[in-house]
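Input.
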Amino acid sequence: SDVVLPPPTSAAPTQSPSVSIAFEPESTAAPSSLPTVIPTRLPTTNPTMQPTLAPTTQPSPRPSSSPTQVPTTVAPTVRPSNAPTHQPTTLAPSTRHPTSSPTTEPPTAAPTTGVPTSNPTRSPTNVPTTASPTSSPSTASPTTVRPTQQPTVSPSDIPTGLPTLVPTRIPTKYTVAPTVAPTLVSEAPTTAPPTLPPTPDRKDCGALGWRLRGAVCGESEVDGVCHSELQYTFVDAYALCGSIGARLCFKDELDADVAKGTGCMIDPLHVWTQTRCTTAQGGDGYQITGGSTKAGPVSSSCRDAGDASWAVRCCSDNVLPPPTESPTRAPTMTPTYAPTQIPTSEPT
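Output.
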């Protein structure tokens, strides 16, 4: 009779069935409850010896057609990026813990080659980066071997031992203190302050044609020329007034307006006087004061005779003092800085 075969157990039965019907393959210890819908056509030639310990719960709907040969990280991220880069910089990650806030600035031209700092600054420093200056300064050679940390504010009290090899062509007009080492060609030491320029014979107010105000008179023009520019030293002013037989005014005379309204628009300006004083630096100086009190009280101050910043007004007397009957044959070698505070009880 005809042999009736059972129906196939698979939608796609094997292409190579067993030759012997009597052969019964060994059944699996854990058969699947449902046979596969799409069985493999060819079984693997290299089956896994151990099944995976962490199988995927959901297989990828779009598996890669060309899986990478070098994994990008040892520990893949739990939350992959929504916008991965198309051009990764390296085949392996640059750090195990990439930053969550990457910089938007372009990469540095000189990146750190060693280990980056573990404690970077939060803001730029206000303190220099090194405790000592650089060993390679910008100049070819330093200006001095050991520069001073506290430069002097004013000239040194100790002059140089040797004079300069290149002296100035124009000597100074005035100095408060004489030089410590005078020139060898001089037969007499210089004075402190230096001797003022000699003046011609004095003229009284009548000879000068100036308006008398009390016992003195004042004027702004010297030989018809104004000297209102704030550029004259004490010696300049002294010589200008002396060149016409006049003299510099005293402070109290200008404060009494003896030269007020004499022209050149000097009334509101500061002018030199021959009233002596002591400067803020402790040196000898002369008072400057206002040309007049026309615009109100004017401040006065003591200035060094070499300060070239003030205008000139001149004065003279109604009656000139008579010349001395016993003039000195030669000026003193050590003149006084200021008149004595204790006059002699009897004249010489």
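The longest strand covers residues 270-278.
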